[in-house]
From TrEMBL:
GO terms for cellular component: membrane. Keywords: Oxidoreductase. SUPFAM superfamilies: NAD(P)-binding Rossmann-fold domains. Belongs to the short-chain dehydrogenases/reductases (SDR) family. The keyword Oxidoreductase applies. It comes from the Bacteria. This is Short-subunit dehydrogenase. InterPro entries: NAD(P)-bd_dom_sf, SDR_fam. GO terms for molecular function: oxidoreductase activity. It holds the Pfam family adh_short. It comes from Arcticibacter pallidicorallinus.
């Protein structure tokens, strides 16, 4: 099937890595369904993407809410669109020591990063299986490869995404459906602002370019790869985390993420 007859659905598509992925799909003439919370940002993004000569449908939903993932699926079905490629990009962090952070916000992070991702994948995967064709890109993180003091819940959610993605890929190995994990490191997006971590030492390090991260993920997805760690520095960090004891990896990550004014 020609790309201009195929549809990709991207969550978190109005900023950061999701936005850069949307541009890559549009350039390759995939019709798009883009999802985000801000309807005005969605319309601006859709207008830009349509300049590539593709169809763009917008769905304004808040994936912090339990019902939103199913509502997205139902809306897509009402449009009589088959999703050939699903990109689960939407995600958020929350900064601070676990003893001090707000429980409800952490439950929201788990809902967004884990539950909504599972729900969308389950629903659209069943449709892909009927066609025995499809691709899924889950945006995990190198944060999922090591414990993360000051972002303990976020790191835990990304550990889940990384592991779960590998598991369902194996389950689908005898089908024509591929599942790819994209593992970025610290990237120059609005993530740190939304996570309330602008005073973290990690912002003193060189941040990855979201365009480069998106290109790595897009190429890996289209090649059917199982996983891509974006950036050489991040590849080294993941390799080290895989051989170090958790206590050492935690200490190292804690030093990177602690507040700048920590005495």
């Amino acid at each position: 099937m020609e790309n201009n007859q195929r549809h990709a659905l991207i969550t978190g598509a109005t900023s950061g890595i999701g936005y850069e992925l949307a541009k890559l799909f549009a350039k390759d003439k995939y019709n798009l369904v883009i999802v985000a919370r801000d309807s005005s940002a969605l319309e601006r993004t859709a207008s830009e993407l349509r300049s590539e000569g593709i169809q763009v449908h917008t769905i304004a939903k808040d994936l912090f809410l339990k019902e939103s993932a199913r509502e997205i699926y139902d809306e897509v079905k009402s449009l009589r669109i088959h999703i050939d490629i699903l990109v689960n990009d939407a995600g958020q962090g929350y900064y601070g020591k676990f003893e001090d952070t707000d429980l409800e916000k952490e439950i929201d992070i788990i809902q967004l990063n884990v539950i909504s991702c599972i729900t969308l994948t389950k629903l659209f995967l069943k449709d892909m299986l009927l066609m025995n064709d499809g691709r899924i890109l889950n945006v995990g993180s190198i944060a999922g490869e090591a414990p993360g003091p000051y972002q303990s819940v976020y790191h835990g959610t990304k550990a889940f995404v990384n592991s779960w993605t590998a598991a369902i890929r194996n389950e689908l190995k005898d089908t024509n459906i591929t599942v790819t994990a994209l593992l970025p490191g610290a990237t120059d997006t609005d993530f740190f602002n939304k996570a309330d971590m602008l005073d973290s030492k990690i912002l003193d390090s060189k941040l990855s370019n979201p365009e480069d991260v998106a290109k790595d993920g897009y190429d890996a997805l289209m090649s059917g790869d199982d996983k891509i760690v974006s950036g050489m520095k991040n590849k080294v960090q993941v390799a080290m985390a895989n051989v170090l004891p958790d206590s050492v990896a935690s200490e190292t990550m804690g030093k990177q993420q602690e507040p700048k004014d920590k005495s």
